[in-house]
């Protein structure tokens, strides 16, 4: 039997869902979820950092989130709180914040953070994280650290999200080649020519990763309180970037961590979500020397 044709303004997507339907879902995930949110301190377990949780719930999904270079975990409070409002325990270590941090040390701390949130009851004792519903995520420097964490923890995780990943030493592309986990890589429109960020290179090395470019977004704009960095010429906070990224991250995590098929398009490389472009990871990335030339011309 032939499928009925879609309306002119509703191009068919994978799984037969129309553009209007997925837009409605993205709009819903752009707003806070149904859960009241509690904030806690990881220091109670000997790890500097923060944790945001739904008000209650047992066997919840959980993530550890890595911060960008010279940025505190508190800079992502809005994003972490947003995830918690949708039922995901979100914790972020506040380590490796110096000028010359170690990506491997932050990767280790992300793993420690997962151990903490799965090993103890959180909040007033009515909150727990299921050890089989874990993921890691991060922004910039922290995105690359998340890839190293995933390579080390392997089957303990269900997914990884790298938001505007930054180049590091050692390079995250190396461990990405061995990952067999669902992955989300988000980049900015100018990422291919930016000497600091490497979303295209990372996605190209990572089998099965979904690469999305968020329209009109800024790779450095995800933290909420980056005044000093903006003054120093390193980019500042951008609310448009934060509003665009949060539903993409939330939908991806809800699918890979809970298996809820309502959110399956967020992990589908064939689906173009609102305000994004699906980029072919096989497209040849800009060589580092050309990125440097583009930077000097600005």
Describe the structure.
- With 298 residues, this protein is of the alpha/beta class.
- It has a single domain, classed as Alpha/Beta hydrolase fold, catalytic domain (Rossmann fold, 3-Layer(aba) Sandwich), CATH 3.40.50.1820.
- 32% of the residues lie in helices and 19% in strands.
- The protein has nine helices and nine strands.
- The chain has helices at residues 19-30, 77-85, 103-119, 141-153, 173-176, 199-205, 227-231, 239-258, 288-296, and strands at residues 37-41, 49-54, 57-66, 89-93, 127-139, 159-163, 183-187, 209-214, 276-278.
- A nine-stranded mixed β-sheet has the order 1-2-4-3-5-6-7-8-9, with helices on both faces.
- Strand 3, helix 2 (77-85) and strand 4 form a beta-alpha-beta unit.
- Helix 1 packs across helix 8 and helix 3 (103-119) packs across helix 4.
- The radius of gyration is 18 Å and the shape is globular.
